[in-house]
């Protein structure tokens, strides 16, 4: 289910990034003898790298929003031996209470804060590493 839910926007981003690659550069590379594989990895991919990085960051954040899929399939029950439990469903069960479990607002807020910090730290680290590697290409 998540593949169908999260494949559309990244494909549109990649498609628009590939369309934006200047045809002059592609044509010049073909005249110089570049084959399709090297044309993509040496010309096109460096030009679409910023959009690719955006897709990676958005997909990472979207993976933490898997609550709706798990909740639609299982309800608030965590499945056998908590096998379908993710941070979102753990937050829901602890903050709102379910299946005979009493709501614990403090623990629920702590879980939400941990989810936020995980996303913030890893996204910030990825952006810092990425900003060091991105080159500015002037046409």
Q: On the 0-100 scale, what is the average pLDDT?
A: 84
Series of H and E elements: HHHHHHH
Q: Give the fraction of residues assigned to helices.
A: over 70%
> What gap, in angstroms, lies between the N and C termini?
41 Å
Indicate the proportion of strand residues: under 5%
Give me the number of helical elements. 7
Taken from the alpha-carbon principal axes, the silhouette is elongated
Low-confidence stretches: none
Largest sheet: none
Radius of gyration: 21 Å
**SS content category:** mainly alpha
The total count of strands amounts to: 0
Written overview of the protein:
With 139 residues, the protein is mostly helical. It is built from 7 helices and no strands. The longest helix has 29 residues, at 105-133. The two termini are 41 Å apart.
Give a quick set of tags describing it.
7 helices; 139 residues; mainly alpha; elongated
Topology:
Layout: H1 2-6, H2 8-19, H3 23-31, H4 36-63, H5 67-74, H6 87-96, H7 105-133
Please provide a brief summary of the model.
This protein is mainly alpha-helical and 139 residues long.
């Amino acid at each position: 289910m998540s593949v169908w839910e999260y494949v559309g926007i990244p494909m549109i981003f990649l498609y628009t990034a590939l369309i934006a690659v200047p045809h002059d550069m592609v044509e010049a590379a073909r005249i110089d003898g570049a084959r399709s594989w090297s044309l993509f990895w040496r010309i096109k991919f460096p030009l679409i790298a910023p959009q690719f990085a955006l897709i990676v960051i958005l997909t990472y954040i979207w993976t933490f929003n898997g609550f709706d899929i798990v909740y639609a399939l299982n309800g608030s029950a965590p499945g056998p031996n908590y096998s379908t439990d993710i941070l979102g469903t753990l937050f829901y069960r602890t903050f709102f209470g379910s299946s005979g479990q009493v709501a614990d607002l403090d623990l629920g807020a702590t879980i939400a804060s941990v989810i936020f910090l995980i996303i913030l730290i890893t996204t910030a680290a990825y952006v810092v590493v990425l900003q060091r590697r991105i080159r500015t290409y002037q046409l």
